[in-house]
Structure formats: structure tokens, C-alpha cells
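Q: I'm writing up a methods section and want to include an example of the input and output format. Could you take the sequence below and give the corresponding predicted C-alpha cells, formatted cleanly so I can copy it straight into the document?
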Amino acid sequence: MSEIITDIAAKRELGNKLLSGIRNLPPVPFLMLEVSKMLENPRVGASDLSRVISKDQAMVAKILTVANSPLYGLPRRVSTLEFAIVILGFDQIKNIIVAFSMMDAFRTYDERNWNKRAYWFHSIMTAVASKRIADDLGYRKSGEAFTVGLLHDLGITVIHKYFNNKFHEIVGLVENQKMSYLAAEEKVMKLTHQEIGKFLTEKWNLPESIGDGILYHHSPSLAIENKELAAIVHLADCMTQRFLIGDFDWDENIMLDVGVIDILNLGDIQYLENFIDSYKELFKAQFDSIIF
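A: Here is the clean output for your methods example:
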């Protein structure tokens, strides 16, 4: 087996080199830049933001679908973009746009060894569940939980889109040698999809908290900063596997990091299990409502 790189500085250098070698790495989407710039102006109102976002009707549909999803937890139906902006707030809208913009920028169309529908459903389920868990636990930046939930596996699509031969090599190791996807990623890429996702957020100048949430979504106990955010997304990710609703093969045999008990003040293992189980019916309702 190839030597696994554990040094953080070496990982960073490798990640930067990897992304720098992608000649057609997508630029930051125009809508994402325009909305971010608008929100720097304190005089901008919901109607101003609505006019700009309305230029992208696909984004409008995604925002309304998310706002009306059972796990998102809004008390009333949202039928217009402007009302969605008012009820969700500027920060939430920005987080939704950032997340979907990145998903769209790295969308891949080659379906060999890649179930893009399952990936999309899994990402959506993890995003809205992360937002709901964050709200239920009183985590202040629940919009970031949504963003990290949607983007947590983005590194997989980068491998698939830009390193396609290596992607199929990873799949081959998993199928033929019964290796885990993470171990196969390490062997082939010298990096995991979490690390690649983290490097992408740095490349696009997203908040460090989002990068940390992506980097540690499989192991929040290892995070130094932003442990709560990583732990929330980890829980949502694990729930998709536990309930077999929006689950994804790259998370097969994912291990629950029981460190979330202390990180999120969830009492003990029995309380944690009950907490997880309490979301099952919401997951069922959410899955039935997905129309993407």
C-alpha cells in the first residue's frame, strides 16, 4: 500500500497542488458573488434581493423547495421568493445560494460507477436534517449547518469530474478488495474527499467554519474549531444511513462518533439513540417531499 500522508502541512500542499492542476476549475458563480456583494449594503431590502435572484429561476425553485421541506421546519407555507427572503433572513438565503451554487458548479454527468440521483438526494437530506438538528439544539448558525450538510461530500464529485480514472480505481478497490471508500481514497489520491472539500472552500474564500465542518464531518471529535457544526452534520449524515433514507454508498458502514454526546451536550448514549430515533418520521416525510 502507498504511504499515507498524515502531516497537515503536507496534506495542504498536496491539496493546493491538486486543485491548482485543474485547468478548468469553475470560477465562483456570478449569482453567489452578486448576492454576497449586495448584502454588504445595509440598505438592500428583500425586494432588491428578490429581483436579482429571480434571474435564476432554477435557484428560486430550489430555495422555495427547501423552505417548504418538512425537516426545514418553517411553520407556514412559503409561496414566493420575496416572502422566503423575509421569513428566512438574508444570512439563510445567502447560505442556501452558496451551497447550491457550489453543487451546480461541480455537477458531473458521467454516470459510470456514479449514482448522481442518490448523491443529490443524500446531500439534500443531510442539509435539511443538519439545519433542523441545529435549530432543535439552539445552534445559532443553523444556515451554515445547511451549507455544510449540502456540501459535505462535494470532494467526491471533484474526484469523479477531474480525476475520473482515479475515481474508478477507488471504486475498484472497494469492490474487489473490500476496502472502505475512505481507505481507497487515501491509497489512490493521498487525500480524502473531506480534505478536498475543505481545500475547495478555501479556494472560493468561504468561511473557515464551513471548511472545518466539511473536513470533520466523519470525525467531529478530531476538530479543534467548529466542533458543534461538524458534529451536527455528522449526526445528520449518520441518520441517513441509520434510517436508509437518503443514504449513499460512499458512507457505507459509517461509524457514529460518540464524541458528539459531549460536543452537543446530549447526555449519554441512550439519550443520543433516542434523539436520533426521534427524527425518523421527519426523514420519511422529507424524502417523500423531495422533487429535485
